[in-house]
Amino acid sequence: xxxxxxxxxxxxxxxxxxxxxxxxxxxxxQGTTGKGNTYKNNLVTKxxxxxxxxxxxxxxxxxxxxxPLFAGYSRTAATPDYKLTASSPAVGRGIxxxxxxxxxxxxxxxSSIDLGAYQR
Length: 120
Known about the structure:
Largest sheet: 3 strands, parallel
Number of strands: 10
Helix content: under 10%
Structural class: mainly beta
Strand order of the largest sheet: 1-4-7
Number of helices: 0
Shape: globular
Radius of gyration: 14 Å
Order of helices and strands: EEEEEEEEEE
Distance between the termini: 20 Å
């Protein structure tokens, strides 16, 4: 989904290891935001309005702008499969800083962290 800061103040927010793909908006700061926010190692692409819209001179690092290669994604699928295929550019591209120890299914992240909700 999209990642969007609105009018509430946001500072020292760390957006790492995410996949933001095929939405109207990508990652955006709006309203009052600080200079302490970081955007590292995310896969952000094919968001129709923009992929990034950051404020205060902030930049993103380690961004991948390629298809995520989900196991079974389709905009029209009733239950899309967001797990990564072996050839996904998101496999092993995450960073340990602020990463949860397990993925959404409880699988350990280990030393090679994948982007997104699921560890391959």
